[in-house]
């Protein structure tokens, strides 16, 4: 494993106006910075922003009770709005904030259309298939987000994630190891917004689809929610660690339908023989998690949707932190998902809230 490194360029990103893994230093720097966004303290501080977005989505569904709901679109808007709010360190504020939000909604629906098309990409589908127009719109959006953040910096003592990045951008010079160019700031933002929202949306859709196909499991999930949350209460993040059955359902969905089935491609830094196969230096290597997650040597009845297999495990076994090579929906090693702590919180909060608030059936 330690001879495999991530490829230094991303297919389909060559036309993008901002930097994405374009220099060897940058790919490691971005990892550190993305982790900076997702510290426990920062995530806890912005719980209100996530909650607000989920509550808005619930009231949107409530107004449309009885009509078909596009779960993907709903999850996409919650995830993107929550992520951008966290990046800005607060809500979209004032007239400028409103214009930006409208602008982002337009881009979001264009992105949603692209995401809905057949997946031909090997990395983040949305990034790889960005057309020039979307690319341009995204660039404009990132510039307006950066403008809002620059203006807010003057008024607020507490620096949001973006303000922190802009601070580093200001310090930009050759000698400064932590310096950033404006293009790198944009690249990092695009990576976080697109990388985080497409995957979260996909997992909300798959989990809801599995539950609607398995009504007994749906009922058990709802019972779990009633027991932990209480029938007349709204779901809070403090409830999430106690929702053991929903946790098992989500893990089982990750197993059968990982959001990035081939993870992020690696390349071999030197020639090696692995499991009897020669892998020449410089080969692009894909780890097929989709296949490992369905391997009958590892999983009993691998094609069966059975959340219980994750209920009976010993603590730590089959977690998704990249320590167990049989189950790696968030990858493993240096290129492991840097958004995992936020992904966990957003995914469970959206699913738990939707499932606890409504009775779902197919149209
Ligand atoms: C359910 C939601 C998510 C899933 C299933 C997921 C899954 C993944 C996977 C499989 C990888 C590649 C790991 C590897 O190849 O070893 C990855 C990378 C990444 N993810 Fe996530 N992710 C999710 C949400 C998020 C969120 C919310 C963010 C940010 C806010 C995020 C940011 C990233 C970034 C920046 C990388 C690239 C890391 C690197 O190359 O160093 N992800 N994700």
From TrEMBL:
Domain of life: Eukaryota
Source species taxonomy: Eukaryota, Viridiplantae, Streptophyta, Embryophyta, Tracheophyta
Name of the featured protein: Cytochrome P450
One Pfam family per UniProt: p450
